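Lab notebook, bench 4. Still working through the backlog of constructs that have no structural model yet. Next entry is a single chain of 265 residues. Request: give me the structure tokens for it.
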Amino acid sequence: MTTHYGYYGPCTFVSLATNATADKLNPSAAIATVHTFISNELAKLQSPIRMARVGPSPFHMDGRLKPSSQSGAPSPLSFAVTGTYGYENYEFTYDTSMFDSVDEADDALQEAVSDQLQLFYYLQRTSNLRTKRAFELSEASQHLIQKHAATGIKAWFVRVFGTASEARRLGMEALQSRLLSADEMQSAQTSIAQTLSQTDALPAFANHLDEFKRDQYAHAVQNASDVVLFAEGSRKGDFEVAIVSASTIFGAVAGGLVALALTGN
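Model written out:
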């Protein structure tokens, strides 16, 4: 087990040194076993340290490293991906003329992909924060919609005189989320380009990194903004009707009082 510490955080590789056939190996189960073992040992020591997970954990792939069938390949390391339901199978190969042993090739492979995996989990943590923001915006939007969908005189008063601050707060949160997401997307694109441009990088996980180049929660921000526009437009319309009605009523009352006063004279 080897942990690499980089700019975006740590990345741990669990290598299975075994002569078992490929169909009997389960690399993902091995990672889960190591995670459980360390958690249990920390518990025995009553350590304040706790193991945590950032999904997907383990990474949704089964990787295997083996010698290339051809010597003198264009690159010391290469890979092929076979997509399967749930997990992808990564088959890494190394040129035997460049490496004296599989352990040496394994070290080189880890160096070639560790930055990509560190960046992946950093971007995943950032994405988790966007998920939280999107959920909070959706909850607040639903709450405001419910107030505007309610019927009855009490609901009307709440809608006209009690939702302005709530709509303003939701609008500010949507704006802040949009600005944060724009900065995160720009930062993600720059970081991905820099990481993949490294001369010793093996772009095995470029497709997974590319998924972070788009904001999959932009719809939540747009929905919240639409709710604010509708709610405020509806509330202002009702408020204007209330003001006109009140003016008409007060005008009629004032006119009646004046008429009574004149009649009395």
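Notes after review: Residues 102-149 form the longest helix (48 residues). The helical segments are 27-44, 102-149, 153-162, 164-196, 206-210, 218-264. Flag for follow-up if needed.
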